[in-house]
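Thread: Putative acyl-CoA dehydrogenase, structure

OP (GT): Posting the sequence first so everyone is looking at the same thing. Length is 380 residues per the record. Can we get the structure tokens written out before standup tomorrow? I want them in the notebook alongside the other entries.
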Amino acid sequence: MNSLAIAVPTTTTAWTDDARVLADVGRIARGPLAQLVNRIDHEGYYPLDIMAALGESGALGVHLDSHGGRFGLSLAAMQEVSRTCGSTGFLTWCHDVCGLYMEQSGNPALLSRLNDHAMGRTFGGTALSNPMKSLAGIENMLLRARKVPGGYKVSGSLPWVSHIAKGQYCGAIAAVERDDGSRSHEIMFLLDLDERAELKACPEFSAMEGTSTWRIQLNDYFVGEDSMIADPARPFIARIRAAFVLLQAGMATGIVQGSLDSIREVEPVLGHVNRFLHDGPDELQAEFDELGGRIMKLAQSPFDGSKDFMLEVLDARTQGAELALRASQSSLMHQGARGYLKSAAPQRRIREAQFVAIVTPAIKHLRWEMARLMKEEMPA
């Protein structure tokens, strides 16, 4: 049992009950997490105690095949967390996709570590922001690998990697270089942040500072078979990409739900004048309900490899980011000065929504990918 004053299950047997999982997540989000949210936002507190409790509740493991592959429940849990705190919602996504990499790798060495990860006993994030943009042709791959006996040695510097610290780990991708410097393929591996990896501070953001985000510096970091997620990496990424993107939708819907909460909070006292604002609660609620229905339908088949399915996921993720921007802005307009206080949720959610709009894949990246996929469908 963790140190938080809330009863959560300590075995996975309770995870079979979807209602109980969501109830436990809700109690964590509205209780201990709500009490920490300003510390997370203002002081950069990294809430591993909350993450441990979420792990015990099932929030970090129910999307895995070994626990029923319930992506819809995972998204609902992430929404509940993000409704209170966008930073912790993002940590939840980072942890979820790291578990996804481990399980889908099929590597026995990584599978032996998966249960502790899913239970929130160990913690790991994702270092795929640069690789995802590189594979899309937006920027160059920053980590480089060379073949050596028994594996690879990886070098390079990778910024903006979240939910990591010494003793933790993350999924990463490196370009394998031939002797002439050309790229042969890419490998994906679990990067253990031990004495071989150096963590350097990143410039301070205006929000999301409680996500333990660092620059990773590697110099001939050895990657052996026990750490390998995929070699080559591209077929693996193609297989999990839709699930990777779809899981992010829980952050967006949580911010929208929290924004609706703040709008309705002031309706009794400001409703008579707020009715002149655009993006009122009824309009936003209708769009939110429609988006939620789309996301839950997609969550039924997250590994559908069709082009049409990927387009639907990209579009839903884009709609979620755009709706989060509008809803958070509307929330502040509805609350007025009280929502502009440093401790107020509406001003914080605006910054969180902006993050959802720029985190990989950002809105511009999402539209880039949709344009590329639709161009492939056009007749010659």
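GT: Both are above now. Quick notes for whoever picks this up: The mean pLDDT is 95. The two ends are 61 Å apart (CA to CA).
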